[in-house]
Amino acid sequence: MTVHTEAVERYFAAWNATEPDRIAAAVSAAWTPDGGYTDPTAEVVGRDRIAELIAGVHRQFPGFTFRPVGTADGHHDVVRFGWELVSPADGSAPVAGFDVLTLAEDGRIRAVSGFLDRVPAGVG
């Protein structure tokens, strides 16, 4: 397993955690203390704000899970991958995107640049 694959696995673990304590622990494992997350609907810095963002997504999409699409591709301190947010009811994926992670020397995330490819009306 490469540093890129490990970072992506920790990233999905954070996004798929649903209880506040588990979200906080997963975010701490995945991000540096001053790490950030930016997409067209959000821009946050710091683990607490990232954990709040993740909790907010779970409130908006209860029971949904994030899953990777395709294979992550990385070099140096950068990794990119596709993802989708999947409904537990019917397996549909109303939200999908593509993220680019910039990693710190220890393999944790310094920054996320997120791109949303598919978003339902009224989200964001």
TrEMBL record:
Question: InterPro entries per the record?
Answer: NTF2-like_dom_sf, SnoaL-like
Listed transmembrane segments: none
Q: Can you tell which superkingdom this protein's organism belongs to?
A: Bacteria
Q: Where is each SnoaL-like domain found?
A: 8-111
What the entry lists under SUPFAM superfamilies is as follows: NTF2-like
The protein in question is named SnoaL-like domain
Q: Which organism is it from?
A: Frankia torreyi
Q: What is the lineage of its organism?
A: Bacteria, Bacillati, Actinomycetota, Actinomycetes, Frankiales
